[in-house]
Structure to design on (598 residues):
């Protein structure tokens, strides 16, 4: 991009941006003639992808700022007006907006609300931080047509973004995602009202307790053993951290109302977009739980919990018991907690008579997980006679399975999960919900304690039944203008020359979801159809049952690999199976590193 093009783009942005801070940033860069930084801010427009927006906060068309938010929201509003012409004509369209603790989240949320109002769409806006799952719940409860949550999930502090939702409370999918993107890319005029005008015309309404209270009641209603909780809640001590995000409001209220003792990490309780105590506010990262684990050891917690900034993900750690020294904690992976929750949900339904005992007849109850989530969950579901579905990565696809099975009455999905610490245990929400997952995990902890077992004990029992499953992930960032091309090149090379082995194990078949085909390396002419929406994902199925998946991230400039391996437990027992699984996964990672670099 030459300097004259950069200057023209920068001047165009300065003329249109109304926020003084973002405008001054670009003016200052022009004055300094910082062409490298200016090129990064203007070599492209921040893409409104299938999930919405996400990017570094700052001035410029390739940054998150009020102008970019307004333009994107105008495109979304235009699409909604076209999608529901009768409601638009009657002036009955509605949207809901929530936001998290990130920098500029309140400003971006209000900017979006005033764009909706300028287009005649009534907007329900929370007055302060609220979790993503509550936004999904509010859309469904209020009968709104669309929604936005301003968040960058667990990205570093310099990021913000927003996710767009449809009237079912789920993130948008085809055909709406493509239609919205077309409208966003075609915006030439932005319609907006002032805050005073929006309120006076009845196009902006603040909602808080009208949603908070029924949402919390719904979360409590999804528990299985209220009598057990009432009798023994005092026996379980929970340490919790919202990681400077939105979770404390509801996690503390729900668990506290059940009589459970919740000790929140004081340094991380309040919302703070700097996330000053963590490098990444991500419960998947062990370092993010450092303060919570320290407090857990001090108070003798039975479980340590963490939600990410928008409280849609949950991570936990539990006392190691016989696995380690007294006071040690073991981090539970997203795959493991999803497996434990699936087992607990099905066991509880079975014991309450809502799930036929295996062999007693068919059931419509079902679970769904993503294609990169552990295969152990399928084995657990099938052991209870529960239907099992898999879908593409992302909770919008889990919500899609829920919607389709509801529509044709083929199944009732009672649990959805993905490996990246996302869980959904209710149907009133159509996105992952860290609040309800925390409540159910607390009850599950109490239940197994009442049976004389820890969560780790139960996990070992499940390994004994279903084999030992272990997963690993590899990610590599490719920043800058060349990043997307590098990732595309890696995927193209894997498609053109798929590996014959990974970690020394033969690749039996390849699932290419972009090309919608199963391929068989030993039989080059043989293919079978893959019944998924197209997505840039490759999956290598190895001879021993291990599955290795590769996909570029949809929200960050990185490529991600997932490997899931099952090792049957033989004469050497569980420890020998763990050692063998570790050896296999280490060898697979080495092969992948040779392709993408360290």
């Amino acid at each position: 991009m030459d300097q004259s093009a950069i200057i023209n783009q920068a001047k165009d942005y300065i003329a249109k941006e109304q926020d003084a801070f973002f405008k001054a940033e670009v003016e200052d860069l022009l004055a300094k003639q910082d062409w490298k930084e200016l090129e990064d801010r203007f070599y492209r427009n921040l893409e409104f992808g299938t999930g919405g927006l996400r990017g570094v906060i700052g001035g410029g068309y390739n940054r998150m700022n009020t102008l970019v938010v307004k333009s994107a929201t105008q495109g979304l509003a235009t699409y909604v007006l076209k999608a529901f012409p009768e409601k638009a004509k009657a002036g009955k369209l509605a949207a809901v907006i929530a936001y998290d603790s990130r920098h500029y989240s309140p400003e971006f949320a209000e900017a979006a609300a005033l764009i909706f109002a300028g287009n005649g769409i009534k907007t329900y806006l929370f007055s302060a931080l609220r979790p993503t799952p509550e936004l999904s719940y509010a859309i469904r409860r209020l009968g709104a047509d669309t929604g936005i949550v301003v968040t960058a999930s667990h990205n570093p502090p310099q990021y913000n973004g927003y996710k767009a939702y449809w009237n079912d409370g789920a993130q948008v999918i085809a055909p709406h995602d493509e239609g919205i993107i077309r409208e966003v890319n075609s915006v030439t005029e932005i319609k907006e009202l002032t805050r005073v005008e929006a309120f006076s015309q009845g196009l902006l309404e603040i909602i808080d307790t009208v949603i908070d209270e029924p949402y919390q009641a719904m979360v409590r209603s999804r528990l299985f053993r209220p009598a057990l909780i009432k009798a023994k809640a005092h026996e379980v001590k929970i340490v919790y951290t919202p990681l400077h995000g939105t979770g404390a409001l509801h996690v503390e209220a729900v668990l506290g109302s059940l009589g459970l003792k919740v000790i929140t990490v004081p340094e991380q309780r309040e919302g703070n977009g700097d996330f000053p105590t963590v490098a990444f506010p991500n419960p998947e990262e062990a370092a993010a739980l450092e303060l919570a684990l320290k407090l857990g050891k001090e108070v003798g917690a039975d479980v340590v919990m963490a939600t990410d900034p928008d409280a849609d993900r949950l991570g936990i750690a539990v006392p190691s018991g016989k696995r380690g020294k007294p006071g040690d904690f073991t981090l539970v992976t997203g795959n493991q907690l999803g497996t434990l929750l699936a087992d607990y949900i099905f066991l509880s339904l079975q014991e309450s008579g809502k799930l036929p005992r295996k062999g007693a007849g068919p059931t419509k109850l079902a679970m769904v997980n993503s294609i990169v989530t552990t295969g152990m969950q399928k084995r657990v579901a099938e052991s209870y006679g529960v239907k099992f579905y898999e879908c593409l990565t992302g909770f919008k696809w889990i919500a899609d399975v829920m919607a389709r099975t509801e529509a044709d009455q083929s199944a009732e999905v009672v649990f959805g999960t993905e490996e990246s610490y996302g869980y959904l245990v209710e149907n009133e929400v159509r996105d992952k919900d860290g609040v309800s997952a925390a409540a159910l995990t607390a009850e599950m902890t109490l239940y197994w304690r009442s049976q004389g077992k820890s969560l780790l004990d139960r996990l070992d029992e499940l390994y004994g039944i279903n084999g030992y499953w272990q997963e690993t992930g590899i990610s590599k960032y490719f920043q800058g203008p060349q990043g997307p091309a590098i990732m595309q090149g890696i995927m193209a090379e894997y498609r053109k020359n798929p590996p014959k082995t990974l970690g020394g194990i033969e690749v039996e078949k390849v699932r290419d979801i972009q090309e919608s085909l199963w391929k068989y390396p030993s039989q080059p002419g043989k293919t079978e159809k893959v019944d998924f929406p197209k997505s840039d994902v490759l999956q290598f199925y190895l001879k021993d049952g291990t599955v290795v998946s590769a996909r570029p991230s949809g929200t960050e400039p990185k490529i991600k690999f997932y490997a899931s391996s099952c090792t049957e437990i033989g004469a050497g027992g569980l420890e020998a199976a763990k050692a063998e699984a570790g050896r296999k996964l280490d060898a697979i990672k080495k092969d992948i590193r040779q392709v993408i670099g360290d």
About this structure: The radius of gyration is 24 Å. DSSP finds 20 helices and 23 strands in the chain. The chain has a mean pLDDT of 95. Residues 367 and 388 are 5 Å apart (CA to CA).
